[in-house]
Amino acid sequence: MRGWAAGGLLLLYGVCNALSLEINVDPEVQAFVDEQVTLKCTFRSFSPITQKLTVDWTYQPLTGGRMETIFHYQSIAYPAVVGTFRDRISWVGNVAKGDASIAIQNPMMNDNGTFTCAVKNPPDVHHNIPQTKLTVTHRGFSFQLTSAVLLSILVFLPSAIVVILLLVRMGRKFGVLKHRKKSGYKKSSIEVSDKPEDTEQGTCLGRMGTWCLQCVDTDDEEPY
């Protein structure tokens, strides 16, 4: 009886050890067209990590069809060189930390489907088979603020504020001048131009120059 009991315990321990590898992924991932997306996959193994550890990612389209191996890892990464994800898969994991994640560059709406992460670390070769459903959509227009747009905003917004402030100041100056004109304000001898009125102020350019000289007067100057 004791022999049978010991054998049963050893068998149970072996089964538990063989099924001790656990894998976790995000059940659903939202991505946007042409924006890199990461498919996370973490695992836990009670056996030491060795060079025999392998990671395999497979893909099945949302419309169904056969499963396609898109990535393989064993000591180094082997991205797919043919198929739907050719040259678009990169390794972002770290098996020493229990990370078997990958990234997809330039995702497209045709990439919508189910992704499966499988990890084997002998003798841990049996595990759950979690799946990630990827949904790729177009990002809304209101959120499409590229770096160029942001830079334009940062450059032109302060300029617009300065222009508005100058216009307000010039408006106040113009109001003061109108008030002086209505109240019979006369220029001082310093403000009177030395040039004849018919040669300078009689022209459009002369009148504009005179008006600009008057604009540089302080706002606090009271009419006589």
TrEMBL record:
Highest taxon of the lineage: Eukaryota
Keyword set includes Disulfide bond: yes
Domain spans labelled Ig-like: 35-137
Entry-linked SUPFAM superfamilies: Immunoglobulin
PROSITE patterns listed in its UniProt record: IG_LIKE (PS50835)
Any Pfam family hit: V-set
InterPro entries (UniProt xref): Ig-like_dom, Ig-like_dom_sf, Ig-like_fold, Ig_sub, Ig_V-set, Myelin_P0-rel
Membrane disposition: Single-pass type I membrane protein
GO cellular component, one term: plasma membrane
PANTHER family the UniProt entry points to: MYELIN P0 RELATED, MYELIN PROTEIN ZERO-LIKE PROTEIN 3
Entry's family note: Belongs to the myelin P0 protein family.
Protein name, per record: Myelin protein zero like 3
Lineage per the UniProt record: Eukaryota, Metazoa, Chordata, Craniata, Vertebrata
